[in-house]
Amino acid sequence: MDETEIPEDHPRYASLVTRHRIEAGVERGITSKQGLIAQGRGEAFDYLLGERTLPSADGAARAAAATLLLAERPVISVNGNVAALAPGETVELADAVDADLEVNLFNHTDERVRRIADHLRDHGAGEVKGLAGDGEIPGLDHARGVVDADGIEAADVVVVPLEDGDRAAALDAMGKTEVVIDLNPGSRSPRTADVPIIDNLLRAVPNVTAHARDLADATPAELEAIVDGFDADAALDAAEATIRDGSFADADDA
Ligand code: PTJ
Fold it and tell me: For ATP, which residues are the binding ones (predicted)?
């Protein structure tokens, strides 16, 4: 079934569209087969969170927007799942905060990097980094540590949606400020992040863009106040409490 054939009134419409996009990503050589498994894990957490943006995740998205607007060299890291699920939205976020886009893969192949870069360009991206591979994240084996010297290696702020825990820790050790988007509040990467956004990247990416547009005229002092007022541990705790309380069943109250 084509994405357009999924009836919009189907109770699991958003989930079916998401699955279809990941499946299509695998078929096009953009998403890895492991991406299907990651998607399944994500869906389970999304269900437990009520498939909505928690107020705490919205606060994190605003802090992420402020962090990106204050950054000197922000980079958004794109993997096979991000490229399949939200290519246009990711390009829009990069435009809104003047960030570079870099393809950075957990299961690296040059072919997949090229395909993802082309896919982002088809969705309006200008330059896409990740093809040079002339930099490194120290402390990781070669394939996992390959980045561009003028991209992630030189960045001050990195957005890493769906990042693996080891790489999140290695980026942290390099002194990067990290914005992580991940539906699992117990995962190591959001726990390492300066700004963990516990939300589906399909909702989180456009939400950060909306906050960035809203904050476009804010002064550096106003942006810094938003960053300083954000409490990463409280945001993680709020998501975890939602899952533990089973309050996802009351999603309409959010
Ligand atoms: O394209 P590559 O080679 O870079 O590989 C990308 C994946 C995602 C396959 C790779 O990084 C991987 O194996 O990731 P993990 O270790 O399975 O972690 C994926 C995390 O993302 C899990 O914590 C999921 O809950 C979460 N996740 C999955 N889908 C979404 C999500 N978080 C937010 N939005 C989603 N749509």
Answer: 19, 41, 182-184, 188-189, 200-201
Whose alpha carbon is nearest atom 31 of ligand 1?
42
Find out whether the beta carbon of 201 lies less than 6 Å from any atom of ligand 1: yes
- The interaxial angle of helices 87-97 and 110-122, nearest 10 deg, is 70
- Return the domain boundaries, the chain: 55-245
H and E: helices and strands count for the chain: 12, 8
Pick the CATH number of 55-245 from 3.40.50.12640, 1.20.1050.10, 3.40.50.300, 3.40.50.620: 3.40.50.12640
Q: 163-181: per-residue pLDDT in tens?
A: 889 999 999 999 999 999 9
Calculate how far, in angstroms, residue 221's C-alpha sits from the geometric centre of ligand 1: 34
> E-strand spans in 89-227?
100-103, 128-129, 135-136, 146-147, 157-161, 177-181, 195-197
Q: For 112-151, how does the pLDDT look when each residue is reduced to its tens digit (9 = 90+)?
A: 999 999 999 999 999 999 999 999 999 998 778 999 999 9
Residue 54 Cα, ligand 1 centroid: separation in angstroms? 20
